[in-house]
TrEMBL record:
Cited Pfam families: ETFQO_UQ-bd (PF21162), Fer4_ETF_QO (PF05187), Thi4 (PF01946)
Biological classification of the source: Bacteria, Pseudomonadati, Pseudomonadota, Alphaproteobacteria, Hyphomicrobiales
Sequence ranges assigned to domain 4Fe-4S ferredoxin-type in this UniProt record: 511-540
Reactions the enzyme catalyzes: a ubiquinone + reduced [electron-transfer flavoprotein] = a ubiquinol + oxidized [electron-transfer flavoprotein] + H(+)
GO annotations of cellular component type: membrane
Assigned keywords, A-Z: Electron transport, FAD, Flavoprotein, Iron, Iron-sulfur, Membrane, Metal-binding, Oxidoreductase, Transit peptide, Transport, Ubiquinone
Annotated function: Accepts electrons from ETF and reduces ubiquinone.
Major localization listed first in the record, in broad terms: membrane
Gene Ontology MF terms in the entry: 4 iron, 4 sulfur cluster binding; electron-transferring-flavoprotein dehydrogenase activity; metal ion binding
Protein name: Electron transfer flavoprotein-ubiquinone oxidoreductase
Natural source organism: Rhizobium giardinii
Length: 551
């Protein structure tokens, strides 16, 4: 075995993994509290914002606290204020608009902004760097570093130039060790470092099971007469059945741009369900397709979404650091919003860590973060909606959404729930049922105008991976994949993946699992939904994956 060269190391006060809203807000807040602190942010994308994908309608509560004067500045990314809020229930051929007065007040989007969250992160990165934060894009954190007592003391970036065979290539470069007094993990949903830490420190011991959805999004430039700047439209129902959770959105931004997205809850049972094709079908609905007639599709992407909410948040702190943002699962599911809580969680962690460093502490557990988050606006936001997802899962779309709305009203008006706090039951992986219990779904062929195939869609995501490197989608037991994923579940990975990464092909008379890792858009769905938890997503070489321009 080739002996690896020693890593170079860099010692700083705080290491932050992930240049998303949580990580960047934490970096900014650390510098606001103590300008003398050294802060480094690692970002696996080729640039800040490259891997950021969200709807997104942003509640400005977090940005208002982080940067109170932002509205007075030129060049900020919050260009489109919400002017109209529509909720639709879709049937196969028609739709019903739900009256806004029936919606709980927390569902009201007036005062919020329609944005590209990637551009918000680019803007936050400029703010952070102006304060002296060092941001290293193109460097994926792949390993947690510990001291002899088992406390986290830093992270290491991935080695570059390893060939597919596992041998060190001619351009091999050893990763760097970043050592800090504290480490904040803001990788987003199902991050690989967060997974390691949750397992090592048993952070989910007292939490409910995590729950997820897959969100698929396109950005369109539409005809001027079809554009309604500031319109936010959410819908549920068709094409999903009443027992499959999910919904959709149309957000009208500036410059005739419309973001359209579709979310499927990953606790679905039918292995033949094809989230990407459900999204394409959704666009053909009479209430939807008119927006896109004569328009042009500009971008495509997909990302998993945390849906467990209040009861699924793991313990945030561990010796030497904390989880923040979507790594902790702070998405408000019915609002389809998480960036405001990500910003607030980054600020909370930053303030507690700055105080600890000021007190001479290092690499211990900042238990104050864990003890206080439920009392903050993050906890209050998530607690009011904690039963919406469990009710939807238990009773289906119509009854579940009705009961969820009632529960939000009682929480808002009276501060309590008739249901207490409901549990989530199974993991999303365990929710999948054998193919023998279901029928195949016949999806129409794409027309190339309104509906598309996956490969042409992935092209728009600007995804790129060097092919001569170890596959970053690790199947732990290939025999199990054939016996179970293929033989029992009819190969659901060939459908749930929104990038066409997985295929079962016949080779030499045998069914062979093919992994087209170069297509991967880093959504993490395979890591979540594989029925045997047999696929482990790890970062590829730093800087690889999608490069989303305005998502």
């Amino acid at each position: 075995m080739t002996e690896l060269p020693e890593r170079e190391s860099l010692e700083i006060d705080v290491v932050i993994v992930g240049a998303g809203p949580a990580g960047l807000s934490a970096a900014i807040r650390l510098k606001q509290v103590n300008p003398d602190l050294s802060v480094v942010v690692l970002e696996k994308g080729a640039e800040v914002g490259a891997h950021i994908l969200s709807g997104a309608v942003v509640d400005p509560i977090g940005i208002d606290r982080l940067l109170p004067d932002w509205r007075e500045e030129e060049g900020h990314p919050f260009k489109t204020k919400v002017t109209a809020d529509h909720f639709l229930f879709l049937g196969p051929a028609g739709s019903v608009r739900l009256p806004n007065f029936l919606m709980p007040p927390l569902m009201n989007n007036h005062g919020n902004y329609i944005v590209s969250l990637g551009n918000v992160c680019r803007w936050l990165a400029e703010k952070a760097e102006a304060l002296g934060v060092e941001i290293y894009p193109g460097f994926a954190a792949t390993e947690v570093l510990y001291n002899d007592e088992g406390a986290v003391i830093g992270v290491a970036t991935g080695d570059m130039g390893i060939e597919k065979s596992g041998e060190l290539g001619p351009n091999y470069t050893r990763g760097m060790a970043l050592l800090g007094k504290y480490v904040l993990i803001g990788e987003g949903v199902r991050g690989s470092i967060a997974k390691q830490l949750i397992a090592k420190f048993d952070l989910s011991r007292d939490s409910d099971v995590p729950k997820f959805g897959i969100g698929i999004k396109e950005l369109w430039e539409v005809k001027r007469e079809n554009h309604k700047k500031g319109l936010v439209q959410h819908s549920f129902g068709w094409p999903l059945g009443m027992k499959t959770g999910g919904g959709s959105f149309l957000y009208h931004l500036e410059d005739n741009l419309v973001a359209v997205g579709f979310v499927v809850h990953l606790n679905y049972k039918n292995p033949y369900l094809y989230p990407f094709e459900e999204f394409q079908r959704f666009k053909t609905h009479p209430a939807i397709r008119g927006t896109f007639e004569g328009g042009k599709r500009l971008s495509y992407g997909a990302r998993a979404i945390t849906e467990g909410g209040y009861q699924s948040v793991p313990k945030l702190t561990f010796p030497g650091g904390a989880l923040i943002g979507c790594s902790a699962g702070f998405v408000n599911v019915p609002r389809i919003k998480g960036s405001h809580n990500a910003v607030l969680s980054g600020m909370l962690a930053a303030e507690k860590i700055a105080a600890a460093i000021e007190a001479g502490r290092a690499n211990d557990e900042i238990i104050e973060i864990e003890n206080e988050w439920r009392k903050t606006d993050i906890g209050k936001d998530l607690k009011k909606v904690r039963n919406v997802k469990p009710l939807w899962s238990k009773f289906g779309t119509l009854v579940g959404i009705g009961l969820g709305g009632l529960d939000m009203w009682t929480n808002t008006l009276f501060g309590f729930s008739f249901f207490g706090t409901l549990g989530h039951s199974k993991t999303d992986a365990a929710s999948l049922e054998p193919a023998s219990q279901h029928k195949m779904i016949d999806y129409p062929r794409p027309d190339g105008v309104l509906t598309f195939d996956r490969l042409s869609s992935v092209f728009l995501s600007n995804t790129n991976h060097e092919e001569d490197q170890p596959v970053h989608l690790q199947v732990e037991d290939m025999a199990l994949q054939k016996l179970s994923e293929h033989d029992i579940y009819a190969g659901p990975s060939t459908r749930y993946c929104p990038a066409g990464v997985y295929e079962w092909v016949e080779k030499d008379g045998k069914d062979t699992y093919v992994i087209n890792a170069q297509n991967c858009v880093h959504c993490k769905t395979c890591d979540i939904k594989d029925p045997n938890q047999n696929i482990n997503w790890v970062p590829p070489q730093g800087g690889e994956g999608p490069v989303y321009p305005n998502m």
